[in-house]
């Protein structure tokens, strides 16, 4: 990935979701993310109706550009952009500007290793927009100056650009021995994650500040955590603990080595509303329209079973786990994980009642 002009951008790690359309594909197992999209829809409709200044863009505007960052392979990205597009169309009509409705262009972005073939093959045939793929990391520039009018990103920004190197250094106080995440880890470990997320968000907000036209809207949906709540109390935190327990069991049985577990960390982070607010204010390009935490459980019809959690985690994490441990352990690992979800079902179910989805709606000044 390269930056605009002469700005060199460091190579960013990429962690693609499971491609294709098989049993363990992201395409078949992105139910929780769909619930997230549904949960955010009302907030998006509201902000477009109240805050999107289409008169500022019209009448010279020929194309209204929507970017979905970290789009993965569908189908959720198509649902999200269709919702946005319909809300923008309603806004034009409510302002008496139906005759000035521009063409819509949707820019689907993800890392170069994303399965764009599946994405493009499953694009809705009757879509009311022009579609384009934009490969590259959103931790740097992707689009021309002031070319975007609406940016959406759901369940993508929690991926760090890289694992903090001190986590795998046995001589560092942040060495994360026997765990795969900062859940239930000492403060030195969580601080290393926080520092990396802070850097990543600074570059993300700076890039978007240049790419979004004045008056444009950005909606960020990601795992979040209430101010002052330990990460071990939210669903992904519980799941990452159980994944770590399963890997350590395999290490004790000699299937993998403990050193392999010690050198593996999941590069994901869930910020609190206070953290995100401070990062946005520090950037200075955006005004905050909303910064809310919600419990996705309210949009999931059934109680969340261990099997659903296993499929969800496998679709999202199989790639990164296989790369480190080899693909031959995957079936065994997730069978063990499934067993742990039964053993810890009370902890998992109570976690799903916590507010653990952050919706940040920002407006370009």
From TrEMBL:
A biological-process GO annotation: methylation
Coiled coil regions in record: none
Cited Pfam families: Methyltransf_7
Gene Ontology MF terms: metal ion binding; methyltransferase activity
InterPro entries found in the cross-reference section: MeTrfase_7 (IPR005299), MeTrfase_capping (IPR042086), SAM-dependent_MTases_sf (IPR029063)
Keywords on record: Magnesium, Metal-binding, Methyltransferase, Transferase
Protein name (Swiss-Prot/TrEMBL): Loganic acid O-methyltransferase-like
Protein source organism: Rhodamnia argentea
